[in-house]
Fold each of these.
Amino acid sequence: MAAPQALGTLFELPLEAFGRTVGAAAGSSDTSLTAESLAALQLETAGQEAGDGAAAAAAAAAAPPRGPTCIACGIGVVGAAGFASAEEQRRHFSLDWHRYNVKRRAARQPPVSAVAFAALVAADEAADEVGSLSGSEASSDADRDAEEGGEGGGSGAAGPQFAFQAADGKRYACWRALVAPDRERCAAPPPAADSLAALRALRLSGGRWAVVMLRGGHFAAAVFTVDPARVANPRQPDKFEALAHKSAHRYVVRAGQGGRQSAKDAGGKYAKSAGSRLRRYNEVALQRDVAEALGGWTELLAGCSLIFVHAPSSNWQQLFGGEEPLLAKADPRIRRVPFTTRRPTFSETKRVLRILVTLYQLPDAAESAEEEAAAAAGAQQAATEAAAAAAARQEQDAAAAVAAAAAAEAAAAAEEEARRKKAEKRARQKAKQKEARVAETAVSRAEAEAAAAAAAEDEIGAAAAAVAAMSGRLTAKPAPVSGGAGGGKGRVLRAGTLLFVAAAAAAVLAVSRQQRRQLQPASGMRRRRQ
């Protein structure tokens, strides 16, 4: 859907154009509104500030070459015209153009003209540099210190738009903070008719508004007179008259670390360094500065019809906490700034007020209906395509699952076949090993039998040789002896010896046979065991 377009201010819309309400601008994109429309307003506001500087420079050039000067910006020096009055010089010192040239002078760099500064402000890449012109040199990231999402911060996505329809059928929207208090300060949202009546009254009379900003050690507050005629005048460069303003800065957040020192102390990490002591002292000093500024504006704040506050996280407690709060939390005039802001400065308070009074034009109902129908058709087509893609993915997943199951089955079969072949190979190896053992045993047995037989034959031969030798000695003819009785005794002795030898030979043969019989059963038993 087309984003709302930022027109002028709501004071430029004729009073009769405030017709009937059409509800909250929920059909519009709050994100587009905050990101695109506010970006254009930032450039416009920056150009307005630069225009103030250019106007001051033009006034100084038109004045005679005397009067107050500004060395940093080159006004009233080297033959250039000075300021027409001390008041004009003081107004010049409050411009970001002057602050920027002061920093350049401290860095030994030449000053830039008002026109060059306006171009620098308008450049997108220089937005961060210009945003840190006033205050300290700390980066804007350190100033935020994770406080943007806390209580009192901007909420661009919370639906801050109030929409209404003019008599000619055009649809407009403004910030809801102008016509209705914050949700926590009212029991129920006011009726749309009451909000429209409040917007008409605001368009008719304007009033006195205050802007209070406190974040990251930076404080800025200002009270403005909002004159409908002055704001609607396109030739008026400064739309709002500042009745009072105050800004201060204290070093309370460590650069690059984020978070206040008091928050770290409350978490149980009480540091004792010189920097931590300085930050604790500065927190107390900043609270004192804020109390002195707001305390001195009691009458001004009492006469304000609206008070806009931007104080994220713990800064909100500094304004509304304690026994004697600086601002009453239940005051229906107090409204949160409903968008993201820059570092709190006096120039930022004017920019916040400029954005708050901006009027936005919403797309026509017919165009919105057509865009909604086109968006619905596109969403339906996208859903159909997504469903078709999901079905195709499911089919692919099913086919992949079937293929994976087949692959797993094939892998299991291959593994089983490999296991079977391995078992068969192991069985063949065992059979070969058994045959080798049997053959080796048979060879060993045959060798043992042959050795036993040879040993028995050797024993028999030795016994036979011994018997033969003995029988030869016995049968040899002995020497003759005297007397017949001696001869008879010799024959008897030889006969006995022969008998003895024969018995010995028979015993040897019996022993050899017995050994053979013992070897044969042992061989049979080994054969049966194998």
Amino acid sequence: MALSFSLGILLAGAFRDHAFGGILAAGLMLAAASGLALHRGLQGRALALGLAAVAAAGFLAAAAHRDGVPRAHLRHALARGDFPLDEPSAFDACVVDDGRIRGGESVHTLRLLARRRGAGWIPCRGMGILRVTHPGARGESGRTPLLARGDRVRGWGVWRRPRNFENPGSEDRVARLARRGVWIVGRTKSPRLLEIEPGGCSGPVTDLAGRARTRVRKAFRPLADRGKGVEAAILASLTIGDYTELTAPVSEAFRNSGTLHVLVVSGLHVAWIAGVLLCLARRARLPERLRYLTAGTAILAYTVIVGFQASITRCFWVFALYLLGRMLLRHADSVNLLFAAALILLAANPDWLFEIGFQLSFLSVLAIVMTASPLIEECWHPVCAPARHTGEAERLFLRPGRWHRLGRRLRFGLELTAEAMADRVSPAAARAFQWVCRHAAGAVAAAGSLVLLSLAVELWIGLLLAHNYNRISWIGPLANVVMVPLSSLTLAAGLGAALAPGGPGAALVPIAGKCAALLLACARGAAAVPGAWQRCPTPPAAWVWGGIGLLFLWYFLGWRRRWVPAALMAALLLVPATAPTPLVQSTLDRFRPRPALAGRGDGGDSGPVLGFTFLDVGEGDAIVIRFPDGGLWLLDAGGLVLPPAEEESGEGFDIGEAVVSRYLWHRWILRPERVLLSHADLDHAGGVPAVLSNFAVRAFGCAPARGDARILARILAAADRKGIPVTRVGRGAVLDRGAVRIRVLHPVREGAPTAANDRSLVIRFAYGRFSALLTGDLEKHGEKELLARGFPLESLLLKVAHHGSRSATSDTFLESSSPRWAVISAGSRNPFGHPSPEVLKRLERHRARVLVTAELGAVTFETDGVRYAISSHVRGVLERGTL
């Protein structure tokens, strides 16, 4: 039923136009037909019709969730153009999260209640993310966000719609925010523009949950006051699911070691808490049903405190259904419980089907239930169980099967060794040896079970993690043997410190801090092991879900040779892992699509192709250059998408990681031969450190120019860590690549002090009849110097300098370059007004076709030197012809 319901949700996403009433009637008729078939004993038909009715119910639930919004909702106002964007507007809202500090800003999610129109207020529903400039957030004592969950706030802000980076492989951020109900993002320049009513939106339940979260944070505050903020953040993440203070290096350490799941409130926490509660209730001699009811109530309270995240909500429903079954004296099947919980959650919120957290949560449990548990029960425990009773003559193991025989042989060998020790040493030594064997067998059984559990989970979700995060952790199965028990100990210490009153609680805080520090040290140690993890290209979605579907069907239907789907999934995971090898790369080159440079009537295949892809990186530049021989260069990797305060903090959005690297991984490009930097401004250089860290770059080159010393230092440090040679590139450099002639025209290697923009790299490419001029951020002073040198500038393709700023691209420069196409890399609704209307008019006067990444997304120009094709990620093929 859950799978059929999910299929209906997927179909709803594919069909935007539908007759709701017609589908409702069809679903009711299918349900009636299913009941009639069942009444007549046609069980097969009844099942098929019933599942079709459930699929129709999933379609209706998803369609109603997507389209059934009131007229006062933000979506209607945005569609009508009735909501003020890009201008100050007044709002009234409730704060629905705890907020987080990012640089000099306090970031919060708001549920809008009303907005100002004229002299009055009108209802407005929907969610938005608000950033409030809050300079005090930088101080040691000002780490608390400006607003708290449950506060009511009125004020002024500038709102806009979120926007995606329109490149192949980029995340659909707009859809992700929409699934959370977020339709707008905004900024308020000062807290003085806000009127805050603490607790103005809190109810009794939310107020109690907020107090509980506050108590937990206060319990760990002494650690932060003593300079152990990282340990306090780990404890807050473990106990109440508060991830706001986890820094990027900490998350990276756990992610690389394959143990990030221990920081997420999930089934481990629920099982631990439920086990403790049931044990205490049993010792108190409470009736069985009362014990289950008490434990279920406690888990519900914990879920409310943590917040209804996918992992904890799934655990709550699974546990609640299990307890309900036990109270009704019914046997509970693990798979049925899991899918029943999924059905409940998807009925409440169909969008959760597309959330990576929801997918990972359910697939992990499926891996444990369908793969790991049978393997442990049928293979591992039969081997270890006899050894756990070495020397106990009354415990015999006589079950048939090769694993049971292996376990008996192991025990027999240990007992023979013990008898030999009794004869040669002493009976006491033999008894000691048997005691050691029993306890060692128990430890090996537990450790091996953890390894098998982790391997099974990695088998099920490894490809999905690689698809979404481009990372494979090989050490995870071994690291979990240590990290899972240690995280349970840390959770126990943290909850004890938060819940125990007065002195006992204060005494537990340092212990909890030491446990958290040890947990972090283990994660860092595991991640530091050579070959423990790697970055990988993006596996196609068909691989991911095809492999997962095969695993599920094979184990669900109970087919024999269960190693077959496991081996297939392992092979699929090894393909992206071994992608950098020449064999895999040469195989992939055979399947890469060749660009259609000519129309169908032209005939003939295109020759070796030179390609330029101007990525959509917001307000910045990133140009991927692919040569006819398959080599690849990257010129710049930057973009401004966040306020300067956040970027300076080092905690901002990394264009190099989230946009440029994602594009390269999507294209399975793993070894860029050269990364060039036009100049060291953040909008060109900000993502270069991530690119150098993520890929096996052979060389890095930059102009001998001034710029942001901090970002340049980060780039050089990243190059030094990876052993990448660094060269200075200036005027006169010849970088020819086969038939492609490449000349660096600017700047001089050593020259008079000028602005950083006027010392940008200017590079001219020529290939057959085609030529391109890439100008960085060169402004008019640099253009005059370039023109004075008399270099040949005429080029068919021009990368317009400085994102279309009016301080560049003069008429004189355009007369000399005579471009036929002009690409402008600029951010949508950027605060600088790029591209300037003056520059657009100049380009129009010189008859150059303008291509703006803010409108078209990534723009790609491909040519074999005679024919060409221009395409964009948003609109497809724009132009094609002969040069």
